[in-house]
Amino acid sequence: MSLAFHIFYANVFDEVKEYLKLLQDYRNPVNFSLLITVLVLVILYLTARYIVIPQQRSYSDMEKKLKMQNIRLMALFADLDPDPLLRVDSNGEIIFTNPAAKNKGFNKAAGKHISTILPSLNLELKSFIERNDSLTFYEESMGNHYSVQVNGIGYLNVAQIYLHDITQLKTQQEELEKSQKELEEFSNHLQNKIEEERQRISRELHDGVGQNLVLLRLYLQKRLTDLTGKEDSPEYLEISRILGQITKDLKEISYSLKPIILVELGLIPALITLVDNIKRKSNMLGNINFIDMHERLDSSLETTIFRIVQEALSNIIKYSGAREFNIQLLKKTTSIRLIISDDGRGFDLNKLENKKGMGIRNMQERTKSHNGTFRITSSPEDGTIIFADFPSGVN
Amino acid sequence: MTRPIIRVLIADDHNLVRGGIVSLLDSIDDIYVVGEADNGHDLVNRYFEINPDVVLCDISMPGMSGIDAVKQIRKGDPEAKVLFVSVYEGDEYVYQVLNAGGKGLVHKSIVKGELILAIKSVFQGIEYFGKGYDINRLNEIIEKYSAVNTAGTASPGDEVQLSPRELEVLRLVCEGLSSAEIGVKLGISRKTVETHRGSLMKKLKATSSSQLIKYAILNKII
What we know:
- The complex is a heterodimer.
- Chain A contains ten helices and ten strands.
- By secondary structure, chain A is of the alpha+beta class.
- In chain A, strand 6 (about 285-290), helix 9 (about 300-320) and strand 7 (about 325-330) form a beta-alpha-beta unit.
- In chain A, about 25% of the residues are buried.
- By secondary structure, chain B is α/β, with parallel strands linked by helices.
- Chain B has a five-stranded parallel beta sheet, sandwiched between helices.
- The longest helix of chain B has 14 residues, at about 190-205.
- The model of chain B has no long low-confidence stretch (mean pLDDT about 85).
- Chains A and B meet through helix 5, helix 6, helix 7, helix 8 and strand 6 of A and helix 1, helix 4, strand 6 and helix 10 of B.
């Protein structure tokens, strides 16, 4: 074994010796190829060191410059923006406020979390920014009302928050609503006053003037009987006929102002009389039904319902060309429902002439003044249907 | 045979009218004016003091009206016989009187003979409302003015059978919805809704939505 190893070792030793001898010769091709390899490596190194890397650097510098420019531009716009603008990072920390934001006191929140000034803004900002998402909402902050727009800017890893001050708008809106409400209240008040006044005049004509006509008749009767010696002289009959006509007219005027029957007997007899009169005068078929209306309603609600029916029937007579109308008044568990329908030609609710439009508005207003809801549908096929629901106001 | 004497209490806020009536009745042997009142409260008090046979009362007086006063009197004396006097004529006044429990109504321009007839009728317990107002007419007026239906009592179509779908459509018609809106609500086409409407009208013999609503309400479908 040791002899075999010795022979092997001697052989290898010899070969190595031979090889080294060959290397010493510069013409050896192995040497040549080694030299070329080293040269290529050197060239590659130099190219990378002095050409590729500097160029890459200049690109990234340019990109940085561009970004900066962008940021500066944004900052410039932000500076010029009359509305407050805030910029937050992906953690929600306020990293920038523009001068307008400073004026509104938002700079005090710089470095703090955005939720300290905009509590409604609670979202996962990181992914919001990555998605370049945007969002709009309203918030009251530092004593003003703002319309808030949040834009995520993914490549800057920030979100810009634009705050548009709508305090003035809001105040104006509130003022408008207030004055609208005042107007409504005033209109209701006026309506009530008109009703009171009509009732007073109606009563005066009905009771006062009417009674005096009776006295006049009695007086004339007595005088004419004394003069002519007859109780039914032609003179008396003629005067009596005229007085009768005046009394009839008086009754109608009083009724049109405010039916005494509505005050004294209530809504149901008043509506029956109204429907009776209209049927007689218009030749229309008419029907009125009362369902579960066993008790009298609050007197102002009775007046309101009476006036709505009056207005609706007047519209039906003037415009609908209907052959028939139906009125239903029903007491439900918590409300009173009034339905007035006809089989007329209907009309376009969007194209109302002034007069008819006013009539419908009037009905609407009257319903509203009793916290009721008003609905009207109209078409050539189905005629016109009016629905008015009132919260129960049983006395 | 002596005729009974009718004791009358007169209430009217106009002294002259009251005076006129009193003087009219003065000459009548069997009618005595036993008291006068010029307002509702006074009338109620005097009625229970005097206990007259007949009250002759103006419908409208300031403060408590004649109608209210008579209602109060009839609470204490359901047998009270009252003849109302009014300036005006009309069904609504007749109903007002009947509703208050009055036995009659005459116009203020009434002539002596008719007034006596009216007082005597009321005294005998017979209604007196003048020409044209017989018992049938009075019943008609009462029926007309007390038209307070209890739902479910009227049934224009007796044996009408409506399908559940038709009932749904009818209910929504009564809520004021158009065919298109009903379609959306029930998830069916407008045309189908119109078909249901058509068959409803046919079954209920209605010629308009107005009549459909009337039917639904009188039958307590809504």
